[in-house]
Design a protein that fits this description.
Layout: H1 9-16, E1 23-27, E2 38-41, H2 51-61, E3 64-70, H3 73-76, H4 78-87, E4 93-96, H5 98-105, E5 110-113, E6 123-127
Length: about 130
């Protein structure tokens, strides 16, 4: 058994398959899941695991060259907006209308659903390379 890092075998395997430029949607429990991408649903109950916990864990495992979130996050969910700004300082974070984020999510290779129950706790990560 692994001693650390991500223990969920479905998530660990999906992350190992990602390449440069692939998209990973980290989303709240209410975000519509697009048809097509691999989905790892971590939601246990409302709020568990949180968006922050999942995002922090993923960022220890992935190289991310950019991120896209909904413009509405700033007004509706300032906690998530602050978290995203802390992880992705300008210009690494692009904000688009929520409807556009949903359109972009259809191109993701992986969707990681959290138990987050606050709206607009969603981000589309663009994988980078470690060299």
């Amino acid at each position: 058994m692994k001693r650390g890092g991500i223990l969920n075998r479905h998530l660990a395997g999906a992350l190992a398959e990602l390449g440069h430029g692939d998209g990973v949607l980290v989303c709240d429990a209410g975000m519509p899941i697009p048809a097509g991408p691999r989905v790892v649903d971590l939601a246990f109950r409302a709020g568990v695991p949180s968006f922050a916990e999942v995002l922090d864990g993923l960022l220890t495992e992935l190289v991310v060259e950019g991120a896209t979130a909904a413009t509405e996050v700033r007004e509706v969910n300032p906690g998530a907006a602050k978290l995203l700004a802390g992880h992705f300082p300008d210009p690494a974070l692009t904000l688009v209308p929520h409807e556009r984020l949903k359109e972009l999510s259809a191109g993701a290779r992986l969707v990681v659903r959290t138990g987050e129950a606050r709206p607009y706790a969603n981000v589309l990560l663009r994988c980078g390379v470690f060299f």
